[in-house]
Design goal:
Low-confidence stretches: 1-11
Number of strands: 12
Largest sheet: 12 strands, antiparallel
Structural class: alpha+beta
Mean pLDDT: 90
Bound molecules: fe (ii) ion
CATH class: Mainly Beta
CATH superfamily: q2cbj1_9rhob like domain
Order of helices and strands: HHEHEEHHHEEEEEEEEEHH
Helix content: 25-40%
Shape: globular
Strand content: 25-35%
């Protein structure tokens, strides 16, 4: 447990145990060797539609209700429209999500899939775990990579929580492999479903929400080296403030950290 802990974010052992136990039991049901093969063949991307233990998914749905009054809406023409809830707000209103993020069983399993040891994002990173809300027609995020501003690689976990929508995760595999042909794909992420990828390798987007639809997904971010150079820290904070969580969440927390 200590080996995977970044040290900046003390692990509450007795609290972590419930989410970790349920997750560990669930993860034993998967064929890691087959998933790892699929992950490598797809250029560091894997999709598993039935991933979370049902009781964990149910808890996440309850958490969505708890944080809904605190959603921060953003609109960046041509790039993004939707709502976000940062890890700081989640810690205050829905602490079970942080327990799942810190599950030793989960981070060890994801590290096995990635083929390298993963670490938590620093405690002042509002993206470490965050909820994305698609609640108004046209909510979407355009084509992008989850660029790592860290010295190490950045891995993204997407977990479906609520999906009463036609939104799709559209993606292109192998876009940054020399000599490889890009391979397009598209999935819907049902409640409890998992997508896992190396943020700098997967070009992806979420297609726009239609009328009378709703979608909420949870993202986890893990890294291989949580240190960050100052200029990149500034760029990362500006992006998070403008595109996701607002200046108050990003810079006030930085000041406290
Ligand atoms: Fe993304």
């Amino acid at each position: 447990m200590a080996a995977i802990h970044s040290g900046s974010d003390p692990l509450p052992r007795e609290i972590a145990s419930n989410a970790d136990r349920a997750t560990a039991a669930r993860l034993r049901q998967f064929d890691m060797r087959a998933l790892r093969r699929e992950y490598v063949e797809q250029g560091a991307f894997v999709y598993q539609p039935d991933f979370l233990a049902p009781e964990i998914t149910a808890q996440l749905v309850a958490d969505v209700a708890a944080v809904t009054p605190s959603v921060n809406r953003n609109y960046l023409p041509g790039h993004k429209q939707g709502g976000s809830v940062s890890r700081h707000t989640i810690d205050r209103l829905a602490p079970a999500i942080g327990e799942l993020y810190r599950s030793p069983a989960l981070i060890a399993w994801l590290g096995e899939l990635a083929g390298e040891r993963l670490q938590f994002s620093p405690s002042d990173d509002p993206h470490a775990y965050a909820l994305y809300f698609y609640t108004r027609p046209g909510d979407h995020i355009g084509w992008h990579y989850d660029t790592s501003y860290y010295v190490g690689r950045r891995y993204t976990v997407l977990l479906g929580v609520i999906d009463e929508s036609s939104c799709r995760l559209d993606y292109e595999l192998h876009t940054r492999e020399t000599g490889a042909t890009a391979k397009p794909g598209s999935v819907q992420i049902p409640p409890g479903g998992l997508v896992f990828f190396d943020g700098d390798k997967l070009r992806h987007r979420i297609s726009p929400l239609a009328e009378n639809e709703m979608r909420v997904s949870l993202t986890f971010e893990y890294v291989t080296d949580p240190s960050m150079r100052p200029w990149r820290r500034f760029m990362s904070n500006m992006k998070d403030a403008v595109a996701y969580f607002g200046f108050r969440q990003v810079f006030r927390r930085r000041g406290r950290a």
